[in-house]
Amino acid sequence: MTKELILTSAACARSVAYRPFFVALAIALQLICLRPDCLAQSSEEQQVRSVVAQLFKGMELGDSAMARKSFMPQVTVATVKTTKEGQLVLTRDAGVAGFLKAIGTPHPDKWYEEIWNVKVSIDGLLAQVWCDYAFYLGNKFSHCGVDAFQLFKDGGTWKIFHLADTRRSTECNIPADIVKKHAQ
């Protein structure tokens, strides 16, 4: 045998010897994400995300009943924004009745709340969703900021009990695909 053939044979023998280790490692890594607690967490996160998506779909459709299904009976709402005079203010509402009425009142343009950088945290019956957003009236940009939702799992169903947001019309850093979507 030539020296090259001997070296190649030795390398193949080593790789064959390690093959069971790599196969076992690959299977173990796959099983980590197939555990029931891992799947449940993923399912819980998806349920939480769907509540927020339902709210935004209700806004888009002008369907206040659909949007209402996302909320607990008692909700607090807070907004941080800058007034026309340049003063930073925190406003609070003890409910979403006015918001839901605005959603359901006919308006000429659809409301689109586009979100990105969505982060979901869950601990038992409490969940939090934090995301950047841009709000459009039809395809006209209105404002941007951050939405922060807190949800409670009530009787097996996630519902929003607190919503806070920031609002500004500059320094938005909206992703290009969202800008393109509304550039029509």
Oligomeric state of the chains?
single chain
How much of the sequence is in beta strands?
Answer: 35-45%
What does the largest sheet look like? 6 strands, mixed
The tally of strands reads 6
Secondary structural class: alpha+beta
> Could you tell me the mean pLDDT?
85
Count the helices. How many? Answer: 5
Q: Give the N-to-C terminal Cα separation.
A: 71 Å
Spans of at least 5 consecutive residues with low confidence: 3-16, 20-40
Summarize the amount of helix as a percent range. 40-55%
Q: So what's the overall shape?
A: globular
Short description:
By secondary structure, the chain is α+β, with helices and mostly antiparallel strands.
Structure write-up:
The chain has five helices and six strands; from the N terminus they run H-H-H-E-E-H-E-E-E-E-H. The protein is an alpha+beta fold. Residues 3-16 and 20-40 have low confidence and may be disordered.
